[in-house]
Amino acid sequence: MRHLYLVISAIVIISGCSSSISPVDEGLEKQIFHFGNGSEPQGIDPHIVTGVPEHHILISLCEGLTSPGPKGGKSLPGAARSWDINEDGTVYTFYLQKNGKWSNGEPLTSKDFVWSWKRLLTPSLGAQYSDMLYMVKGASDYHNGLTDDFNDVGIEVVDDYTFKVYLNNPTPYFLGLLSHYSTWPVHKDTVLEHGAIDDRNGQWTRPGNFVCNGPFNLKSWELNSRIIVEKNPLYWDANVVKLNEIRYYPVSNVMTEDRMFRAGQLHNTYTIPSQKCPVYIEAKNADLKIDPYMGTYFYRLNTNDPVLQDPRVRKALAYSINRKQLVEKVTKCGQLPAYSFTPPGSAGYQPDTNIPFDPELARQLLAEAGYGPGSEFPKLEILFNTNEDHRKIALAIQQMWQQNLGVDIVLVNQDWKVYLNREMIGDYQVSRAGWIGDYEDPNTFLDLLRPNRGNNKTGWENLEYDRLIEQANTIKDQNQRHDLLRKAENILIDEMPIIPLYTYVRAYQLSPDVKGYYPNYLDSHHPKYIYLERD
Amino acid sequence: MAIPVLLAVATMTFFLIKLAPGGPFDAEKAVSPQVLKNLNAAYNLDASEWEQYTDYMSGILKGDFGPSFKYPGRSVTEMIGVGLPITFELAFYAILIALIVGVLAGVLAALKRNTLLDFIPMAIAMIGICVPTFLMGPLLVLIFGIQLEWLPVAGWGQLAGDKILPSITLGFAYAAYIARLSRGGMLEVLNQDFIRTARAKGLTEPMVVIKHAMQGGLIPVVSFLGPAVAGLLAGSFVVETIFQIPGLGRFYVEAALNRDYTMILGTTIFFSAMIVFFNLLSDLAALWLNPRSRDV
Predict the structure, then answer these.
(1) Highest mean pLDDT: which of A211-215, B54-58, B90-94?
(2) Burial of A29 (0-12, 13-18, 19+ CB in 10 A)
(3) Which of A3, A126, A251 sits opposite B38 (nearest CB)?
(4) 3-state secondary structure string, B148-211?
(5) ipTM of the complex
(6) Do A203 and B73 touch (CB under 8 A)?
(7) Helix axis angle, B219-234 relative to B76-111, nearest 10°?
(8) Residue A51 at interface with chain B, using a CB cutoff of 8 Å
């Protein structure tokens, strides 16, 4: 028994020794933001990585030509202090910040951007976001090996602080694209000191080696534990930056993250356990934030499937889903029913499509397709990856289709990579999917369903749809462009190779101490505007 | 035997993971065929299976487990090097707690057979065996972290006291097994003639228990320790996830889900080596404690 007392005493003593001030309280004093960041980043090489946690870290370390505003919308100056666009919108001239510096003190010049874009487009680097620059003249050819002379790519250095970019077509979202980390500069000498231009495994991103041009510097990186960045005094806009440090915690378990937030170990959570969302809404939890988000949850339909190749069948399936009920009774976290593929309001674009909930019409369409009384509809499979939320949604859809159409539905749950593989090779009938916009423009959604796009995966090809989007991308005037995109989206919803279900929201928790953190459609929060203050 | 076992594990794992559908570069936003080709070339995945296998095995012999596919710029050897000491530390504290609590409870229960001091610890042990760590962990966090605010709820080595709850969570499940095993072992030994002789010689009860009874009574515990330590290392994933501990267990499971081929291979080979090693160690310890088995 004596030993038991000893153990209990030890716990009490250690707990007594433990710091009485929580990280969040300490952070308030020292301007240290404890950031819940979802998962361990793949890395911090802006040309290699692809995820959202990576974006959160990179936005503090590096900066592109433009920078997202704190509330989204129009692009603000970043590494470029200003820019000119020619009459037809195909030539951009960028003027870099005169006091723009790398974190090692060297000046940031036009040549740095040229070399960085050359690296991004180098085929052997295997960068997954190279196509972000495909609207630049010659970029696609260089990346696909059709030319090996980078002078063929439409970038021209005028002087150390000025360069021109030549585009294939006027691309109204080009400035927005430049806020995406894949287009950001990397420090040539540092990269080459630790490997070749196409070395994916170079050690230049390690603390001590890493050089970039953002508002913060990489201080330390404990694998799977935390990454610490500290204020960069050499940043051109350092006066605006109020935080001294940001500590990123890769908490992949949502319940753990929730507990860390409640115990004052984090200022924010990356997300929220879905089962807790309705509870927090009910309890009017002031820390819960539900912000609009540019993403759509939808079901892909394999149009090569003998049953689903008939658009009437696809429409019947879409018309027999009660989206309002789905978001109110199943997802229950502020999601919005989706009646278009493009989330409404992206860069001022308002889709005018509608997907009615009309079981009667759905049954009629199914009968027209030859599946009336006496001709039974064959069993249909819904494929989804292992996730409790996807399962719940699939169950609800299964019930709606069974109830409204009398269709027999089988749910097929697969491990993430198996699910992706089956989608990719077209080994599915109906498959759950989600798409988050890379930039604030409807093109980031509508481009997906064009023929020969790797992410189409439905087998659906419509030449008129393709032509309209192609044409829209040659037009500078946004109103005219949106008209064409609306026409294209109407074709998409009329043919229904995908069934939009709901528009995503970003649900997370945020400490009231955090200021300058505003909701925006791309969920891009520039840390230079964030500070900590208690009301 | 250890070398052929590990060789067989490496070979089987190498070919089995290639059979699993999906590859390391599959993502929700699919990469273009051109990029996929470039990526496969960058990681030698465009070579024949046999060539990849021989390259990999010759790398292992030089201590090179290859680069991680999921984390560019990180080698598998480096990631094991980072995660392993943490997993070892967690396992060490857990086994220490398990041994202290388990042996004490087990010996006490055996000595006070059929009294409350037997029933209560054994009932708690039964709960410990039945309650999984994924329930025990959050429960302890809720009480000591969130309600009482005594201890941090997650992390490892960042805040004072953040190692206590994960060590107790992991240790408690094993303490329960050890308590039951030591009770059984002690009961068997306490009824034997040499214990009666020791008592007849006038030795004090603590002397009888510690010097004579425990040496034989704890043999089942020692035999259990080998697989237990191996299990602790390989099975620490749940506790590491609940408490946000950057150990090797998390890498292991995530590697499988991500089809990070080299990381799966590296960690599988490594854990296999650990299992072989700790089983051997526990056999040797049991041999040392039990003179009869040495004669055989």
Answers:
(1) A211-215
(2) exposed
(3) A126
(4) CCCCCCCCCCCCCCCCHHHHHHHHHHHHHHHHHHHHHHHHHHHCCHHHHHHHHCCCCHHHHHHH
(5) 0.85
(6) yes
(7) 150
(8) no
